[in-house]
From TrEMBL:
The keyword NAD does not apply. PROSITE patterns: PIPK. It is an enzyme of class 2 (transferase). GO terms for cellular component: plasma membrane. Residues 32-41 have a biased composition (Basic residues). GO terms for biological process: phosphatidylinositol phosphate biosynthetic process. Residues 14-26 have a biased composition (Low complexity). This is 1-phosphatidylinositol-4-phosphate 5-kinase.
Length: 335
C-alpha cells in the first residue's frame, strides 16, 4: 500500500528536489558533470551498426514525413505491418550511398509510431537530428541484466535498446492497448516508445531495437537513480556506499530517505500509478519497476528540517501539474 511518507533510518545530509526532464523538443543546457557511456567512434565494435541505424532512421522518418498524416486503422497495428528496405553501399533509387556493408532495414508499424511521436510532442526533425546528426551515439558501459545493450543520443533525450525477437513480438502485440492507454492518460508514467526497427547486415546477424524516451534527460544533475519494485528480496545494490556514483542504479533497500509531496499532487500521482499498473496487469506483464531520479539541492533546506523530508514542494509549486512535475518518475517495463 502506497503512503505519502516512508520511514527514515537515518537523517540525510542533503535535501532532494524534483528534477523535471526537458521537453522532447528542447535541448538541455550544457552539463557540468560527466556524461554516462562511451562515444561510439570509428574502430568501435558497433560503429557500423550505429551507421546502419542512423541511415535507417533517417530514411524511415523522411519517408513517413513525405506522406500526409491520416487516421490510424486496425491494419496499422497488424504484426505483419512491417517494411523491409535494402541499403546497398552504392545507394539505390530510395537510399543514399554509404561507407558500410550492405544491410536490410525493417520498420515495424511505422504509422502507429509516427502517431505516437506526435502524441508525445516529439518533433520529426528534432528526432531525426538527435539520432542521425553529426554527433555519435554513446554506448552505456555494460549490458543490462537481460543482455540488452543501451545507447544514448548525445543530447540524452533518446535511448535505444537492443531487444530479442520475443520482446518485439510482445510490444507489437500490446501496441493497440498501449496506444489507447497513453492517448487517454497523457500523464502516464509508462515508458514512451518512439519506434521499433531491425538491422540485418549482409551475411550477419539481425539486431532488433526499440527507440524510447530517456527518463534522466534533465537540466538538473541526477545524483541518485533508483529502480524500485516494491520488494525486499535481492533488492540491494552490490556496491559499497562510497562506490556509488551518479550512474549507479540503486534498489529498494538502498533508499534511506523519505519523499514528501503536497497532498493534491500525491493523490494525482498515486492514481496514475494505479492506472498504469492496472494496464500492465491486464497485459499479463509482471516484471516492471518504478524508476526514480533524485536531484539534491544543497544548502537550501535548514539542517533542522532535513530529517523530516528530503522531497519537498513549496507553495509556489502547488499549481504544477503532474505532467510537469512527475517526469522524473517512470514505470519501466522489463520485457
Amino acid at each position: 500500500k502506497a503512503t505519502t511518507e516512508m520511514p527514515t533510518p537515518r537523517p540525510p545530509r542533503r535535501t532532494a528536489a524534483p528534477a523535471p526532464a526537458a521537453a522532447a523538443t528542447a535541448t538541455p543546457p550544457p552539463q557540468r558533470w560527466r556524461r554516462p557511456g562511451k562515444t561510439i567512434s570509428k574502430g568501435h565494435r558497433n560503429y557500423h551498426l550505429m551507421l546502419n541505424l542512423q541511415l535507417g532512421i533517417r530514411h524511415a522518418v523522411g519517408k513517413s514525413a513525405a506522406k500526409p498524416m491520416r487516421e490510424l486503422s486496425r491494419a496499422d497495428f497488424d504484426p505483419r505491418e512491417k517494411f523491409w528496405t535494402r541499403f546497398p553501399p552504392a545507394g539505390s533509387k530510395t537510399t543514399p550511398p554509404h561507407s558500410s556493408s550492405e544491410f536490410r532495414w525493417k520498420d515495424y508499424c511505422p504509422m502507429v509510431f509516427r502517431h505516437m511521436r506526435k502524441l508525445f510532442a516529439v518533433d520529426p526533425a528534432d528526432y531525426m537530428l538527435a539520432i542521425c546528426g553529426d554527433d555519435a551515439l554513446r554506448e552505456l558501459s555494460s549490458p543490462g541484466k537481460s543482455g540488452s545493450f543501451f545507447y544514448l543520443t548525445q543530447d540524452e533525450r533518446l535511448m535505444i535498446k537492443t531487444v530479442k525477437k520475443s520482446e518485439v513480438k510482445l510490444l507489437i502485440r500490446m501496441l493497440p492497448s498501449y496506444h489507447k492507454h497513453v492517448k487517454r492518460y497523457k500523464n502516464s508514467l509508462i515508458t514512451r516508445f518512439y519506434g521499433v526497427h531491425s538491422v540485418k547486415p549482409y551475411g550477419g546477424q539481425k539486431v532488433r531495437f526499440i527507440v524510447m524516451g530517456n527518463l534522466f534527460c534533465s537540466e538538473h544533475r541526477i545524483h541518485r537513480r533508483y529502480d524500485l519494485k516494491g520488494s525486499s528480496y535481492g533488492r540491494k545494490s552490490d556496491r559499497f556506499e562510497e562506490e556509488t556514483g551518479d550512474a549507479t542504479t540503486l534498489k529498494d533497500l538502498d533508499l534511506n530517505f523519505a519523499f514528501r509531496m503536497q497532498r493534491p499532487l500525491y493523490k494525482e500521482l498515486h492514481e496514475q500509478l494505479r492506472r498504469d499498473c492496472a494496464f500492465l496487469e491486464s497485459e499479463g506483464i509482471m516484471d516492471y519497476s518504478l524508476l526514480v531520479g533524485v536531484h539534491f539541492c544543497d544548502d537550501i533546506v535548514p539542517a533542522s528540517k532535513m530529517a523530516l523530508s528530503t522531497f519537498t514542494t513549496s507553495p509556489a509549486t502547488l499549481n504544477v501539474s503532474l505532467s510537469e512535475k512527475s517526469r522524473q518518475l517512470q514505470l519501466q517495463v522489463h520485457f
